């Protein structure tokens, strides 16, 4: 949901392709599904500057090293397509999941295989931050991380921000007040429009009230219509001028909105986006963009950096030698190095052995550094049950259009929360680096 997305393939192809070709190669094949598209140029070749191109470069190295061929499928909605494949009894062997709650769903349904003996970390302390453990067993390997608590600006247009970025939310509000249209807002991200707004609410709650309350919320224990949540939504309205200058935000896609910072006459000046946005900035305005961390509220200043992250987590849906070999490869340094190089330095990991200096430029090194300091809290929308996440997406879209409806929106979100069984909520702590 936080990517430019392409090819949608029926899950039945995932299994038929693998079964048909298994006899063609002594090493066999492995089927993989993920949410990165295979975008094609007019000549039919794959576009080199996409997340799919970077990931398939990793798969190519794996195939070269092991002789195992890979059937990779990108899909617009990996959660939906994977669920359909599982229900049919024909899932891929390996899936890269962008939603951690999906991982829990498959563990509860006994559709996912544990990875304890696949990875066998033993003395590999570098792997520990990448392992997703549920019920005392490892079911997921985090292979790609997106820091989200980032605020972007055009360096040549906002030199004061480069010299002294806002140290608190209150200072950021003051900066916003001095700009005609401060924030570049794009809520469009079909088929899951609205998540750029949920990222705002998540960052505000995290930086206003801290990791512990954030965990209570993501686990379903904090009411939406609580004083803390109301304050967060109202803070968002204050800086975005909800209902007054936001109609276009509902029609603009997330990766286009921020490009207006670089226009001859800038339409907006600040963009709240994760590290994935660098690809779009590089195409439009190379060397003109920079970021500062989303700041804490003044009464939390000095508590240490806190960053919201999204993760792509690998799970094993069929226990085959080929699937095990791929997951072990993805846990290794060669895969991380290939992914980093093929992405232009924009692939990040929680692995404890990586260094910011391994990245090629100042921006990517500073992004990597945010993952090595302070507290990292996973994207709330990825932790919540799917029904809660969908309602959250709808609520932020309506709020931007009708901020006066906040009370009704929060009550509706609490109604959805109350209908979800306790076992569907995922309770994971934030990570301390």
TrEMBL record:
Gene3D superfamilies: Periplasmic binding protein-like II
Key word Nuclease present: no
Signal peptide start and end residues: 1-23
Keyword Cytoplasm listed: no
PROSITE patterns per UniProt: PROKAR_LIPOPROTEIN
Pfam families per the UniProt record, alphabetical: SBP_bac_1
Source domain of life: Bacteria
The entry's keywords: Signal, Transport
Membership in a protein family: Belongs to the bacterial solute-binding protein 1 family.
Name the UniProt record assigns to this protein: ABC transporter substrate-binding protein
Protein species of origin: Micromonospora cathayae
